[in-house]
Design goal:
This protein has about 110 residues and is mainly alpha-helical. It contains seven helices and no strands. It is extended and about 45 Å long.
């Protein structure tokens, strides 16, 4: 397995990486999974407005802060990546949560 291939990550760690322990341990994340799609969309809108208000920026500017400068993937590219990840999983080409955490901490030390 290529130690430096960044396409492999444990799903549970990937979903919560960068979140505070307070948020992860709050129980809020487990409650979200039981919400309807409509409620999840409303919650996203609410959080977006809260962040915009906290940072005193408008919605368009808020979304601009997430722009990586990279072109978006096409659906075909995304499906190909999902399929490749699944095949890697089936072949046992995975990292432990500890290995993923170590690599992420090296690459993004400010998120610790």
């Amino acid at each position: 397995m290529d130690k430096y291939n960044n396409d492999k990550v444990g799903e549970s760690l990937a979903m919560t990486y960068g979140m505070s322990d307070n948020l992860v341990n709050s129980g809020l994340l487990t409650q979200i999974s039981s919400l309807s799609t409509a409620d999840k969309k409303c919650l996203i809108g609410y959080i977006t407005q809260e962040v915009a208000s906290d940072e005193d920026i408008d919605d368009d500017a808020l979304w601009d802060t997430y722009d990586s400068g990279l072109p978006p993937y096409t659906l075909e590219e995304l499906y190909a990546r999902i399929d490749e990840s699944h095949q890697q999983y089936l072949r046992g080409e995975v990292y432990t949560e500890e290995e993923v955490r170590e690599e992420l901490n090296k690459e993004f030390p400010w998120l610790r």
